[in-house]
Amino acid sequence: MWNSFANMASLAGRTVTIVRGEGATVFDAAGRGYLDALASLWYCNVGHGRPELADAAAAQMRQLAGYQTFEPFSNPPAEALARRIADLAPVGPAKVFFTPGGGSDAIDSAAKLTRAYWRAEGQSDKQIIISRAHAYHGMNAYGTTLGGIPANAEPFGPLVTGVEHVPWDDAEALDKLISRLGAGRVGAFFCEPVIGAGGVYLPPEGYLARVQEICRQHDVLFVADEVITGFGRMGSWLASERFALEPDMITTAKGLTSGYAPLGALIVGPRVAEPFWRPGSAEVFRHGYTYSGHPMACAVGLANLDLIEREQLPARVLELESVLAARLASWTPATGRSRR
Ligand SMILES: Cc1ncc(COP(=O)(O)O)c(C=O)c1O
Question: What number does the ligand 1 atom closest to the CA of 225 have?
Answer without folding.
Answer: 1
